[in-house]
Amino acid sequence: MTGSGSGGVRGSAGVNAATPDVDAFTRPYWKAAAEGRLLLRHCAACGRPHHYPREFCPYCWSEDVHWHPASGRATLYTWSVVHRNDLPPFGERVPYVAAVVDLAEGPRMMTEIVGCPEAELRIGMELHVRFRAGAGAGGGGGDGIAVPVFGPAPTPARAPEPGPGPGPASA
After folding, report:
1. Which residues lie below 8 Å from residue 156, measured CB to CB, with a gap of 6+?
2. Which of 34, 87, 112, 134 is the least crowded, having the fewest Cβ atoms under 10 Å away?
3. How would you classify the pairing of strands 146-152 and 96-103?
């Protein structure tokens, strides 16, 4: 979803290889990401979701596809630790973990793993979507863009273990 199409955010100052090209077709995806929501394209004809977003279904070629919310859950399919990248802003982030995840809905997605030491990465580990605000240098910036990345799934809160009951009643 990068490139230099018309109607995109390219052409503004600070544009780099990490700046997505937001156009009329991808705008709902990037708007949802800025709001902390992940969307997928879903085919009404065959019922299958797909990613990356396309205006037609890659399975049955139907053009009856629509945006649907995704759960944000995924499992790690594969990864590689990038130690050198000369393209801004990626060089400032090295080392980072480039990955492919299996979304709970079925499609695979290229992404980055954050918030997890390399030694703890495991094929099949549960992940949850997070959003990196600003696609510009260093990931900051107020360009209104948020990029989906994934980190370890939150661990469910455990109920406190029951302690001993009240002591003997005193009268």
Report:
1. none
2. 87
3. unpaired
What tokens does 46 get? 């065959």
Q: What is the pLDDT of residue 2?
A: 40
Six token digits for residue 118:
């390399």
Record the pTM: 0.76
Looking at residue 89, what is its pLDDT? 79
Distance between CA atoms of residues 158 and 7, nearest Å: 48
Token pair of 125 as six digits: 């580990």
**Which two three-digit tokens encode residue 85?**
């990248």
Dihedral, CA of residue 3, residue 1, residue 31 and residue 68, to nearest 10: 150
Q: Which long-range contacts (CB under 8 A, 24 or more apart) does 80-86 make?
A: 81/118
pLDDT of residue 3: 40
Residues 141, 139: Cα–Cα separation, whole Å: 7
| Amino acid present at 52 | Y
Q: Cβ(102)–Cβ(79) under 8 Å?
A: no
pLDDT score of 14 more than 90: no
